[in-house]
Amino acid sequence: MKVRQQITDLPQLYSAADVAQALRCSEWWVKEQARRGRIPFTKPGGSYRFTVEHVAEIMRIFERRPTESVGTAVPAPRAPRRRTATTPVPVTSLKARTPRRARYSQSQSTAA
């Protein structure tokens, strides 16, 4: 009975699809975040698996809290940044080539 008790003590593991459904996102997103090391996971047998603690940590990682208290003024949007003056780059003017048809007719007229 001791072996059976140890097996039941193991944490429940959830697949990426289960986590994606719980978080209401795509399975691809969950796997990509795990692959990039942005979320906690375990990988027994080569597939991403998640415990309840992992899912809770994922929710904490992506949690956003208000930074300002209610009633404070919202800062005005910043003006777009302008390019700073740089040293001028020398400009090379381009010249179009004479069309092939015109070049061919010029060589025929000079040869005759």
TrEMBL record:
<dbReference type="InterPro" id="IPR009061">
    <property type="entry name" value="DNA-bd_dom_put_sf"/>
</dbReference>
<protein>
    <recommendedName>
        <fullName>Helix-turn-helix domain-containing protein</fullName>
    </recommendedName>
</protein>
<dbReference type="Pfam" id="PF12728">
    <property type="entry name" value="HTH_17"/>
</dbReference>
<feature type="domain" description="Helix-turn-helix">
    <location>
        <begin position="13"/>
        <end position="59"/>
    </location>
</feature>
<feature type="region of interest" description="Disordered">
    <location>
        <begin position="66"/>
        <end position="112"/>
    </location>
</feature>
<dbReference type="InterPro" id="IPR041657">
    <property type="entry name" value="HTH_17"/>
</dbReference>
